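Support request, please re-run this one:
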Amino acid sequence: MPVSHHTVPQVYLRQFADRKKRLLAVSRDGNVTEQLTRPNIVRVKDATAIENFYTVYTESGEADVDIENHFSDLENNYRPMMDAVRSGRALCPSDKVRIALMAASQESRTVGQIESWSESVESELGIAESLYRENLPNATDAEITERMRSYIAARDTTPILGAHSPRDLARGYIQPMLAARFEMFSRMNQCLLVSRAQNFITSDHPVVWINWVRWPPQSLMDYSSLHLAQEVTFPLSSRFCILFSYLPVRDRVELPQEAVSIVNARQAVRSYELFMKPTELQVVLDRYRDDIFAGDDCVRGPLWSFCNGEGSITPFFDVVEFLGLDLKDVLRDNIGFIEGLADVEGIEVDPRVYDQL
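Re-run finished. Output below.
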């Protein structure tokens, strides 16, 4: 029986809806310019709903709904998290854990992310089958099929025994990514951004990573999550947004309208970037150019400039250590930025920087 799965949970979307539980939504379908200027009214229960999106099927057609059930359990953290956010008090460690968990959950469940994994799995299986046929030239199709079944069953990320299609196998990456992102977000600094006038907007890909010294990104390296200039925004409601940063930030900041515009522009551009051709994306960039760009190539300024605080960049090294990466390699990509920022802002440089160089 078909069941609607929300790629963005309803409990989250209600934070951006009116009293009748309606959203003003912009579609990516059709003419981009027209859609940006003529948003639609959508009910929360219908927004981001896809039939059986997280259901995993076996070769025999059996359905497994553990992923959707797991997300439903996680969503129970959202209400107490929002109660803490709205209270006006400083966020305590348990509040920050919930926020990190919700951000990790949302980033790992999006359509764009899962479609990307599906493409990767399809390529992986195609290569595996080609190698089997090349090295076993006398094997029958039935024998190759059995070899592929064994290969799939042995994969660490195969979600359930019997899953076989790229579509289903891709869902096996959700839990590992959720766990890894949670560990990263829980180590990063958090600042609660507050808007008193203009609303924060959200999208079906609400967790946005932006490296403000490498925008627009020119290569895959520019998307790396391990650069000190990376900022992660996750709108929590129309009035509140969380900022994750490796740099020291204050606990809570009321943003001026220009900074809220930067958050919203990043949200819009990133959600389009995942799905659109470069020529279509340019339409979006042009619309939001005043908010994102000072000139043609650079971000107007980091959100960090509105909420920088006292402290060190220790969270950055904690994340590198958690990921088990070579600190020297990571530092080579960051040392100039670290020293320049330390000199200008008076930030304490973690001794591990110079110990490794």
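Residues 64 and 151 are 21 Å apart (CA to CA). The radius of gyration is 22 Å.
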